[in-house]
Fold:
Amino acid sequence: MALFKKSDNLIGLDIGSGAAKAALISEVKGIRRLERFGILEMPHGAIEDGMIKDPEAVAQAVRDLCASANIKEPNAALSVSGHSVIVKNINVAKMTDEEMQENLQVEAEQYLPFDVKDVYMDFHVTGPVPEKEDQMGVVLVAAKKDTIDDYVSAVEMANIQPVIMDVDAFALQNIYELVAENFEQIVALVDIGATKTNVNIIKGRNSVLIRDVSMGGIQITQEIMSQGGCSFDEAEDWKTNPESAKMDKEELSDIIALTSARWCEEIRPAIDFFYSLNEERPDKIILSGGGGLVSGFKEMLAAETGIPVEVLNPFTALEVNESQFEPSYLKRVAPQAAIALGLALRKVADK
Ligand SMILES: Nc1ncnc2c1ncn2[C@@H]1O[C@H](COP(=O)(O)OP(=O)(O)OP(=O)(O)O)[C@@H](O)[C@H]1O
Ligand SMILES: [Mg+2]
Structure:
């Protein structure tokens, strides 16, 4: 990992299976300002389930994205999620960071479904454990080396150096903390992408429960393709503009409603599990990612969980030059931009 000066800008690069997003944020006297932002569709099939299947297509998408957003910075922060990444909240005997570093493998071994030799690991001490004075809480992160190395080399092919590797759920939490005004509440951050969904329940500034689920907007696209007999691009278009669809409108809205109901069924257990541990429920759900924008989903999730749902607009935390970025454009892409913005905030200053 290269160390770089505080003034150096860092590209926040969220390489999703549906779209790649890049963001650049500057900070002058505590004011964070959006300098660059871009989003570009990822070729279908280049990334599946959080793993890179076509490195050259991914590198080309990153090159095109940075060129179109006029981003020339050499360093980037990336993030991963899905099956290759494990995040666990554990309690261990109190120890120093150095001791924890030494014990990491032993501690991790009991929680990981992978061989410790095959993963990169990191940890973060969250603080004391209530009623257990000799223990401390630790968030343990382990990510498969193969998957991480694939992301690093695809980005390097685009002449960008990844200097920070983060986890989607933490990048999301990072930008949410900038937007949030109230840290008293328990908040469930739910990001629904094209193929995967991250749930991160935070209390104060601590992440207490993280769940990744393999579901997302592409499920609706594929169902439209099969029932509407159309191409991937047409199905994407019909999903976002149902009035333009050349298929039975009722059939289309049934596909959307059925998939949305299934998503609710996947999200609810995470909330119920959190309740079983804490006897508290989240005060609100904050929705991000493009998948969650599908019509009617937000309302259905609120009705199914009994928890108010808001859609995240991460740009509200930043100074934005409206002659550079059209406000209606930013509003439209805001939920998809969240992770890239959270990554762009990861400078040495806040490490
Ligand atoms: N307005 C909209 N209505 C419905 N779906 C939308 C809308 N905008 C985007 N989507 C869908 O959102 C998905 C892309 O969202 P996002 O960019 O958050 O995913 P991603 O980060 O690329 O995917 P992943 O994180 O799963 O790899 C696509 O399935 C796309 O069709
Ligand atoms: Mg995503």
Q: What stands out?
A: The first helix runs from residue 55 to 68. Residues 3 and 348 are 8 Å apart (CA to CA).
